[in-house]
UniProtKB/TrEMBL annotation:
This is Transposase and inactivated derivatives, TnpA family. GO terms for molecular function: DNA binding; transposase activity. Residues 6-171 form the DUF4158 domain. Keywords: DNA recombination, DNA-binding, Transposition. It comes from Saccharopolyspora flava. The lineage of its organism: Bacteria, Bacillati, Actinomycetota, Actinomycetes, Pseudonocardiales.
Amino acid sequence: MATQVFTDADLEALRRFPEIGREELFRFFTLTPADVAFVDPGRGRGPTDRLGLAVALCSLPWLGFVPDDVGSAPRAAVARLAEQLGVDPDAIRSYGRRAKTRTEHLRQAARYLGWRPAGALELKELDEFLLARAMEHDSPTLLFRLSCEYLSSARVIRPGPVTVVERVAHAREVARQETFDRLAREFTDERRAALDGLLVVDSTIGMTRLRWLCTGPVEASPAAVKTEISKLEFLRAMGAETLDLSVLPAERRRFLATMGRRLTAQALQRREPERRYPVLATVLAQSATEVLDEVVQLFDQALSARESKAGHTMRDALAERARSGEDRQELLDDLLEVIFDVGISDDQVGGLIRGERIGWQRLRDAQSTALPPLPRDHGHLAALDGSYSYLRQFTPQVLEAVGFSGGTAAAELLRAVEILAELNATGARKVPAHAPTGFVPTRWRGYLDEAAKTGSSTAYRHYWELATLLALRDGLRTGDVFVPGSRRYSDPAAYLLTPDTWAAQRGQFCSLVGKPADASKALAEVEDELHTALGDLETTLADGDGPARLDDDGELVISPLSAEDIPAEATALKAELTEMLPFAPIVSLLIEMDQRTGFLDCFTHAGGKQTRSPELKRNLIAVLLAHSTNLGLTRMADACGISYDILAFTAEWYVREETLRAANLALIGYHQQLPLTAIFGSGTLSSSDGQRFPTRGKSVTARALSRYFANEGLSTYTHVTDQHTTYGTKVIVATKREAHYVLDDILGNATDIPITEHATDTHGVTLVNFGLFDLLGLQLSPRIRDLGKITLHRTGPKSQMTSAFSHAGPLLTRRANLDLIAAHWDDLLRLAGSLKFGHATASLLVGKLSASSRQNSLAAALKEYGALRRTIYTARYLSDPAYRRKISRQLNKGESLHALKRDLLYAHEGTIRARHLEAQTEQAWCLTLVTNAVVTWTTEYYGLAVASMRRSGRRIDDEVLAHISPAHSENINFFGSIDVDIDGDIDGELAQLGPTGYRPLRIGDTLF
């Protein structure tokens, strides 16, 4: 049974001593005086037994067990203990020739440390622990590791690996049965038949219903909306929304859903009912939420696309109107010239206008071409009316299929939605007289008034319906309207910690972020910060010739930041380092980095299967390169000789966002330990920016953006540290605000990088972000375009601020509403706490808060607080050129990584061909992973080259090295034959490394 999880070689490795790191060496192999006394020779022990007992004493807390071959302990550990005991380290070779000696010493060491062997009671407790964990995780190796950690924490000596693996296997089997037992009440005979029906090909759709449910839309069209609605209706007919899976842990539900989406219908049919039905039920319940979200999203996207098209039509009509009015404008100019000529008497004006100067013909022509006055929106809604028939193809079905709710602010709109749904259902055409119109914006009221005045019920219906649909879309975006049963469009209150939970966690949160719970104290601190920052700005402005100054009219003038003065020495040094670095094909680079980081081991089977074939790493490298270079699996199969089926299987079951993130963390963790990394930056500063890629084919994430794409494209939004590594990647719609996604990967940062400050460009800035960053104990440091034109806020009367700061005070043109902030201070903290503790996704909340209307008092309070934080930041930014340059330098690091990614994604002219968000996200993470591998490899070899130079007597300052970027591809070959070792044996590649495990630098014997 154990060999199904681990190979014989793996089991043997689990019985031996592993390699030891420096931190573990000092932590576990340092003897206290009591430890030395325990192995004292006064007990009759010779040097060999003393040293062997000391190894056992230190190995037990380190490993949780003591290997039989104590003499094979790491040489560094033995030498360290021998030095502390004053014995010869070679004495360990003759230790433990009698098994009884080893056993007795282990027993004594365990008793001294308070450890105990794994007896029946201990193993029973381990089984209970494993069952609880197996209900959450199905990976055997993860459960094995958790078992070892549990035994170690309980001070129980780990039994042999086979024993532990067998108990893991037993726990997994019990967990599967427990899963079925908890859901058994859901599996009536009728539901079982319905679930089995998901696996049968339906002739009406040409595929199984399971595959149909798991295939997302690729465009926002009426047909796509109707397809998703039909899925929703199918799921409701099966009672998917009533399935109660809360009895299962969230991780178990995620695992089962992943299995259901990746397994074929035939594979599921072959599984026994106890395993098949929980998988199908989980997919069904998850689909009920996801399909509902898709319906609402497609409604928003399709409606917005037509509104955008109407906007283009309106602008074209305005341009044509301007062209057609040129003659009338010329006539007006001539008329004004006559009228304002003081040399012409009043009784002559009429004759000149009707006669020789203007003439009746021009007047009649102007009158005949007179254009009607424009409505307040310049004809936008009228242009959208041209798409009325198009919208009617799907909007009635959406209103019928989706239920909408909301608070009192949306009551009138929701009543209008109900009336519209009734009109659609009954076929009535006339809007009833009692239909509400209070939600209709002022700019559109004229359409309804004109239609009512003329008695055109058809026009009134069109404009009222369009206004209702647009208001519904906006309400869904702000959260004023929500959809019960949805995840993305649910009640905003559900995104916040409940009052009871918040009351228990308020103190912990305030301590974590350094914010007082008392509003008056918090605002006093903010006011002190503002006055301090304004004091610095006042000094700068008073100087009159600093980075910021006032012109003669009192307007703020910001001097442009001069180009960063990169030392010529740094440029020359980078060229020299580049010449020293070895050349490496990208495949060899990945093999080398895996040898040092083990990042390929992070790719685990989605179904929990753990046996890893010798060829798996070869296949993983091929898949990673297929995605990161944009070759695709078909061309990669041709290039490397591995069959497409093998690559497709590897990509389907091993390469997913979860494993890509884990592999990325392994690379970042290794990069952090390199000597050169700390010179690049402290790791506390990061930045984020979007990079746009063209797309081919239809996709719901693709948008037309003529500034960047010939047709359509998407954006990847990445988070980069000041040490040049990328720790976050997200695919977003190119036309959406990047500011909504700034906090996502900072809060979801699973690395050991303590991010405290974050830089963005103008696209990442909103008042909401300024407020949330500070409430979360972080600093937002953007580079804002047209910074001198933004509104700055003060905390007191204008006269008071002007008196205190004669130069800076007049720039604060608006007073912040401190009373509003104080009234909602606890709610603001609860909002930030909900994000900090992972209760809600930042992008979801930031998007809704940014779009919220003035009626949302919490959003208004957050924006007021954000305005204060922005003012404080602006004052600091303007008064400190070094701070400005630091932000600019960090943003440039992100740009250099963008350039490296463009070099990598070379195939198909860098055009993304994946059509669904999941596939696009996986490709973006593959690109990030390989980019980080290149950065880590380059950083390490830069360090070796610098060390070589310094050994030869060359002086190289760290200040110069800080200007050198490892986002460098000159020494790496991305092109040519992708030769992934067909036999799956990477030893040949590793043999090319030098005796120290590195490739030799390109200078004579410098490294060795």
